[in-house]
Design goal:
The protein has 245 residues and is an alpha/beta fold. 36% of the residues lie in helices and 24% in strands.
Length: 245
């Protein structure tokens, strides 16, 4: 692990001023980078800590914003914003590109070595960047087995890993099957991990506000899913290439 520094970054997207969290490892050299997307409720300390953990492993990490600096604790408000967003690939791509531009313009980011990791809505945005043909080294998603417009998955140029809870009513087996069929038909290097007994957002520690039905924390699978994310990055975006280890 390494000493890190963090700062907030403001940038325009979706008609809002987004407020992201950038975490950097010690040093001045260029590093591989990770674009980190939050659940539909928006950027919180959970994602900030994950970005910090990635920086401790040697990555430049940007946890991006969805709602102009707001965290939507009201489930109905969250759904009112996220459902139209998830139905609009171009809006998702615009939000993703705006954050990606911030990450790429960080002087220490190696622009040719970037991965996208996201949860829920943030994961769907990462997938849409892939379907838009963005040069990524890997895409990792949890709770985001979303499908795209016909044929566009063929533009994905990197391995895709998806994790989902077996009991997730928001991403049920039919949705998972549609996602894997899309990936397979497009010739994508894909993997799907199903975490037995887990609900939607199983990776997210309990919150002190109402949630949509079907959400529940599963501490063992949360740890396993994080290890799976770290393993994906180690395989597709190894820090050792730049550290010389």
């Amino acid at each position: 692990m390494t000493t890190i520094t963090t700062r907030t970054v403001e940038y325009p997207a979706d008609g809002l001023t987004m407020i992201g969290h950038l975490a950097l490892p010690a040093g001045v050299d260029r590093r591989p980078a990770v674009l980190l997307g939050p659940e539909g409720t928006g950027l919180s300390d959970v994602e900030r800590r994950r970005a910090d953990a990635l920086a401790e492993r040697g990555y430049i990490a940007l946890a991006f914003d969805l709602h102009g600096g707001r965290y939507l604790s009201d489930p109905q408000e969250m759904l009112a914003r996220c459902l139209p967003l998830l139905a609009d690939p171009d809006r998702m791509r615009a939000i993703g590109h705006a954050a990606l531009d911030v990450l790429r313009t960080e002087p220490r980011t190696d622009p040719d070595r970037i991965a996208a990791v996201g949860y829920g809505t943030g994961g769907a945005i990462g997938l849409e960047l892939g379907r838009d043909g963005v040069n990524l080294r890997a895409i990792g998603t949890i709770n985001a087995t979303t499908t795209g417009r016909p044929g566009e998955a063929a533009r994905i140029r990197c391995p895709v890993w998806a994790g989902v809870g077996s009991e997730d009513p928001i991403m049920p087996p039919a949705q998972r099957n549609a996602f894997t069929a899309e990936m397979q038909a497009a010739g994508v290097d894909w993997r799907l991990t199903v975490y037995g007994g887990a609900l939607h957002a199983f990776h997210h520690p309990p919150v002190d506000h109402p949630t949509v039905p079907g959400v529940g924390y599963h501490p063992q699978h949360a740890q396993r899913a994080w290890r799976d994310v770290v393993d994906l990055l180690a395989e597709c975006l190894p820090v050792t290439e730049v550290l010389g280890a």
